[in-house]
Write a structure and sequence with these properties.
Number of domains: 2
Distance between the termini: 38 Å
Binding site for pyridoxal 5'-phosphate: 139, 224-227, 282
Helix content: 25-40%
CATH topology of the largest domain: Aspartate Aminotransferase, domain 2
Modified residues (N6-(pyridoxal phosphate)lysine): 253
Mean pLDDT: 97
CATH architecture of the largest domain: 3-Layer(aba) Sandwich
Cofactor: pyridoxal 5'-phosphate
Radius of gyration: 21 Å
Largest sheet: 7 strands, mixed
Strand order of the largest sheet: 4-12-11-10-7-5-6
Main location: cytoplasm
Number of helices: 14
Structural class: alpha/beta
CATH class of the largest domain: Alpha Beta
GO biological process, one term: L-arginine biosynthetic process
């Protein structure tokens, strides 16, 4: 079957209907531009939901994957492999962490983090200390455990009964957090910037108080940096920007530049609770994924890239604000680095997808974060010309929707 015989309609015939992808099928990309089956070009301001942090077909990533593909694809964790050891060493040298657990995704990294937090507290303090506190509007994955911890009821609907021992508190509300964390809390988990919840950054005072409360109650502080990690905010990990160090950190998405890989990072003390046989992952630490991620981390963790993210943030935010001065559809433009949210005004509530669809028609890939926020998460190394052209196309989309076209 040739590419021309593969259609969007075919997707609906063979796939479980849990996704509703757009009407086009991209076939290839270079940098921050992709092309569909008809040859139409798009500027990618979505980044595969903050995954393709170095754009499409980055030559160094292609080379790393190709080289490893000619050596070893898979061993399982019955044996160690060199790329996984090298990547774990690199991650511990670059962060607070001493130990690493590899997974295939962010959801699996969070699953491991929550299991570790409970087991650590069970060993250290007893079975009563098992409560996990999370935030309203948070998102931590799609497994039964992670949708239960996630603070959005719509993702739990129809899957009940869900695991117990989970509490939710309003995000950025210090008083509510003080009331929620107690002697039965084993962990508090938070996204430094809520992604799916609307691209809302945490207040520094909130995260610092969370650290104090966890220390006070012998609870672990978990940062879900699946979306904010690997340079997305202008620091390698967002905790570095806030000056608040967690006990456990989860990372995925941009870590593999598009190749599926995730990791849970933690300290030596906490890691000891995952003894042989307590947790695992068949593909976790896969040589192909680790080889690519090694190269990603080397490229991203440089002043050139990280400072570039900060500069590109200003370019994108000023561009969005200029669009808003003309059309008045955004109540706020917020976020950190190249994770940017444009919240819609009351008049446009619930219509974020209309703007995203119009953007696609105008040749630019964009995202939503719920029904009321447009989200942009482009490559960390997107060129200034691509930003300007992408925003020009995005402005045409905004104009169309705002003018009812």
């Amino acid at each position: 079957m040739t590419s021309s015989q593969v259609t969007r309609e075919m997707f609906d015939q063979v796939m479980v209907p849990n996704y509703a992808p757009g009407p086009i099928i991209p076939t290839h990309g270079i940098g921050s531009r992709v092309w569909d089956q008809a040859g139409k070009e798009y500027i990618d301001l979505a980044g595969g939901i903050a995954v393709t942090g170095l754009g499409h077909a980055h030559p160094e990533l292609v080379a790393a994957l190709t080289e490893q593909a000619q050596k070893l694809w898979h061993l399982s964790n019955v044996l160690a492999n060199e790329p996984a050891i090298l990547l774990a060493k690199k991650l511990t040298e670059m962060t607070f962490a001493d130990r690493v657990f590899f997974s295939n995704s962010g959801g699996e990294a969070n699953e491991a983090a929550f299991k570790l937090a409970r087991r650590y507290s069970w060993e250290k303090h007893g079975p009563h200390k098992h409560d996990i506190v999370a935030c309203n509007n948070s998102f931590h994955g799609r497994t039964l455990f992670t949708v239960s911890v996630g603070g959005q009821a719509k993702y739990r609907e129809g899957f009940e009964p869900v695991p117990g021992g989970i509490k939710h508190a309003p995000f950025n509300d210090i008083a509510a957090l003080e009331a929620a964390i107690d002697e039965n809390t084993c962990a508090f988990v938070v996204e430094p910037v809520q992604g799916e919840g609307g691209v809302t950054p945490a207040d520094e005072a909130y995260l610092k108080r969370a650290r104090e409360l966890c220390d006070q109650h012998n609870a672990l502080l978990i940062f879900d940096e699946v979306q904010t990690g690997v340079g997305r905010t202008g620091a390698l990990y967002a905790y570095m920007k806030y000056g608040v160090t967690p006990d456990i950190l989860t990372t995925a998405k941009a870590m593999g530049g598009g190749f599926p890989i995730g990791a849970m990072l933690t300290t030596t003390e906490v890691a000891q609770s995952l003894t042989v046989g307590t947790h695992g992952s068949t593909y976790g630490g896969n040589p192909l994924g680790c080889a690519v991620a090694n190269k990603v981390m080397d490229i991203v963790n440089t002043p050139e890239v990280l400072q570039g993210v900060e500069r590109k943030h200003e370019l994108m935010v000023s561009g969005l604000q200029a669009i808003n001065e003309k059309y008045g559809v955004f109540s706020a433009v917020r976020g950190m680095g190249l994770l940017i949210g444009a919240a819609l005004t009351d008049e446009w509530q619930g219509k974020a997808k209309q703007f995203m669809t119009a953007a696609l028609e105008e040749g630019v890939l964009a995202l939503i974060a719920g029904p009321n926020v447009l989200r942009l998460a482009p490559s960390l190394i997107i060129g200034d010309d691509d930003i300007k052209e992408g925003l020009a196309r995005f402005e045409r989309a905004v104009a169309r929707v705002a003018q009812g076209q």
